Amino acid sequence: MVALDMIDASALLWRLYLSGHDVGDRWQELAAAWDSHADGRTYPFNDWHAVMAYLGAGRTREVERIASGFRTAGGVAEIGEWGRKTALPLVEGFSAFWRGDYEAAAGFLHSARSIANSFGGSHAQRDIIDWTLTEATIRGGLTGMAEALASERLALKPHSPVNKSFLRRARENPVPEQKAA
Question: What's the angle, vertex CA 100, arms to CA 136 and CA 130, rounded to 5?
Answer without folding.
Answer: 25
